[in-house]
Write a structure and sequence with these properties.
Layout lengths: L6 H12 L4 E6 L2 E6 L7 E5 L5 H10 L6 E6 L12 H11 L2 E6 L7 E6 L15 H11 L17 H13 L7 H8 L4 H7 L5 E5 L2 E4 L1 H9 L1 H4 L6
Parallel strand pairs: 3-4, 4-5
Antiparallel strand pairs: 1-2, 2-3, 5-6, 7-8
Helix pairs in contact: 5-6
Length: 238
């Protein structure tokens, strides 16, 4: 069966790697899936597409700037055996030459999807501490600062719950309909150390300063609490 959206491949792949001991989160700094595993230096990065194409290869090569442990993943459609993007033996050779791993997901009507690794990337065993401020360091930090996996890998045209958005939501939730609460109290109640900085920056337009050290939610902030309530209910539960 042919999938309609890339997001359909995300959960089977996530569950596959979670069983192998990875902590997995989606849509981390433009990567569809990022995972980390204890005692492994290289983060796992997987780019997902419905079918194998040049755009997927280019994404995979770009992600190799962040890690050597990079896979590309596509659906394996049993109804398209002669299609160019289903010629697996040739695609395996291509990925191996590029140093990329290749994953396929086969969907069935009556049983769970089958995730297969057709080839693995050559993962560096050299321990390298990411340079502070580097793209890789920002990737790892973003992954670590998210309390859960609140996005769906392969999503397009949706607002992602980044670590920063999560912190802003926690501050907005703690502020609620109250006025006059100090940043220190908000920091303690939200658990966000940078609560004052987030309100001052007001990146999303959720906060309004009404006096020195005193804020209230704007209409946009109140709407955000409604829009993201289904996600905030999951904070701390993953």
């Amino acid at each position: 069966m042919a999938v309609q959206r890339e997001t359909e491949l995300y959960l089977p792949i996530k569950h596959f790697f979670v069983k192998q001991g990875y902590e997995v989160k989606s849509e981390v700094r433009h990567c569809d899936l990022v995972g980390v595993k204890h005692n492994e230096n290289e983060p796992l990065i997987i780019e997902i597409k419905k079918t194998f194409n040049l755009a997927l290869l280019l994404q995979g090569i770009e992600r190799q700037k962040l890690s050597s442990n990079v896979y590309v993943a596509v659906e394996r459609n049993r109804a398209k055996k002669g299609a160019a993007n289903q010629r697996w033996s040739e695609l395996i050779v291509l990925c191996e030459r590029l140093g990329l791993g290749l994953i396929t997901v086969t969907f069935y009507k009556t049983k769970s999807p089958l995730v297969e690794i057709l080839c693995k990337p050559v993962v560096s065993v050299t321990t390298v501490t990411p340079r502070k401020g580097s793209r890789r360091e920002r990737l790892v930090r973003e992954l670590a600062e998210r309390s859960g996996d609140y996005n769906l890998g392969g999503s397009t045209g949706v607002k992602l719950v980044t670590a920063y958005r999560e912190k802003a939501l926690r501050v907005a939730q703690a502020l609620g309909s109250r006025e006059g609460i100090s940043p220190r109290e908000l920091r303690e109640q939200s658990g966000v150390a940078s609560a004052a900085t987030i309100m001052q920056a007001n990146y999303y337009g959720w906060f309004e300063r009404i006096a020195r050290g005193s804020y209230r939610l704007t209409d946009a902030g109140k709407q955000a609490l409604d829009d993201y309530m289904h996600i905030m209910n999951r904070f701390g539960s993953q």
